Amino acid sequence: MTPPALAALASEGRQTLTSDQSLVQSVDWAALAPPAVAAVVALAVLVLDLFLEDRHKRLLGWVSAGGLAVAGLAIIPLVGENRTTFCLTEGSRACSYVADPFTLAIQLLVLGGAFVTALLSLTAVEEERLPAGEFWFLLLSSAAGAALLPASRDLATLVVALEVASLPAFALVGLRRGQRLSSEAALKFFLSSVTATAVMLLGVSFVYAATGSMHLDAVAEGLPAADSRLGTLAATGVALTLVGFAFKTAAAPFHFWVPETYVGAPLPVAAYLSVIGKAAGFSGLILVTVRAFPSYAGTWGPALAVLAALTMSVGNLAALRQRADRAHSAVRLLAWSSVAQAGYLLVPIASAAYADDPGRAVGATVAYALMYAVVNLGAFGVAAVVGRGVRSNRITDYRGLVDAHPFAALALGFFLLCLAGLPPGIIGLFAKVTVFDAAVDAGLGWLAVVMAVNVVIALVYYLKWTAILFRTGAGAGEGERVPGEPLMAGAGAPGGAGPVPVRFTVPLTVTVALTGVLALAVSGAPQLILRFADTTLF
């Protein structure tokens, strides 16, 4: 072979090597750490469960809580940075995983909320005799999916992350084996969620057919430039994708699964769904609207505004019907309250369609979600304490709680005032003002009026429940007492006997105290949360 031929062959080999090398990319494990740590701990718990005897199963809960704490701490090195991984090596170099301020804020909410849920679950898993290995594996798996979702920047990863967060939740809801309410709740949750996923996948496939890409930024560029013959297909894909996420966020009229699911699920699971499940759904909705479908803002903006008004109205009016004199469930009231809160969370997202800086409008949703997560988990923590003494957990069972346990009554009263937006729950007030501001700035004056009316409606049932906590007197409730557990004040005490102190466990005490301290801290320094509303998160 002649020297020129050898030189040409060598040059071709170098070109081939360079081309092959372009297909290889490094993985930024630091950016992936928050969801990855949760996933690894989930697998470790599943394996550890095989070797532990029943009397040592409680160790799995502490390992899970520790793993979630480590996953949350893994966010700290990423603060102030924009890191990407799993990027295309050619063309647009779009990335499937991005750790930006929006991602980190949602991951903080998800992993922090999952950690509090783990503390809340330590007592419930043992007392309700839930299968420990399965429970902790499912909880960690769902948390890993929810932490992955806000970092997802292509439609395929987004759907996979959403299903990883949702599928374990079905099983968590139905873990009360042999209980009809739990089985029915799991079935209803499963059917509604599967329907939502099917609708969403159909929408995603239409969007892909119209744009030829899955990456959100490429979809945003491709939709306006799509062939005019594919316009109907693209619009249908956008609409179906949004409907799928509306199911996941419990927006009316897709909220019908919420009350029965919360009541039938183990109480820590209901708390988890009300915060982490909602955070996953809303983060996905934000990504597809603001990042992937900005060219359809004129369509999804008004649609989400109407959904926001409908959701908050339906949730608040239904919660208003949960009255103490009719022995309604406290968990059902919290369920309807969470539907109403979903309406408030939708307001800034709808406003992003009209805002010059959509990232700043999204910040209002993040700020409100962080406030809601802290106080709602705290309220469920006190409800878990009451549920240990009175299985029915009715609103009437809280009458005179201040006599039975002043700490629990004061904590729950403070959490309810935060949700209502009344002093001393200053953070609730400021968060609502931030959402209200987003609507006014976007020119959605009618939505701001609807929100103001709904805030007034919510005051009624929040204040009524708060008043019950400090209303003493025997014979208030007729809840079904758990054998061997102390009675609540007025919870069917024979002969109008005085209140018996409520027994806290160490994990429940830590849960209520931790959420109470956080709520007090952000009420005293609301800028810790409200700064997200003044920050461009994209």
TrEMBL record:
Which keywords belong to this entry?
Answer: Cell membrane, Membrane, NAD, Quinone, Translocase, Transmembrane, Transmembrane helix, Transport
Q: Where are the transmembrane segments?
A: 29-52, 59-79, 104-125, 132-149, 155-175, 187-210, 230-257, 269-293, 299-321, 333-354, 366-386, 407-431, 443-463
Query: Where is this chain primarily localised?
Result: membrane
Q: Which domain of life is it from?
A: Bacteria
On assembly, the entry states:
NDH-1 is composed of 14 different subunits. Subunits NuoA, H, J, K, L, M, N constitute the membrane sector of the complex.
What biological function has been recorded for the protein in this entry? Answer: NDH-1 shuttles electrons from NADH, via FMN and iron-sulfur (Fe-S) centers, to quinones in the respiratory chain. The immediate electron acceptor for the enzyme in this species is believed to be a menaquinone. Couples the redox reaction to proton translocation (for every two electrons transferred, four hydrogen ions are translocated across the cytoplasmic membrane), and thus conserves the redox energy in a proton gradient.
| Identification of the protein by name | NADH-quinone oxidoreductase subunit N
Species assigned in the record: Streptomyces iconiensis
Query: Highest lineage ranks of the organism?
Result: Bacteria, Bacillati, Actinomycetota, Actinomycetes, Kitasatosporales
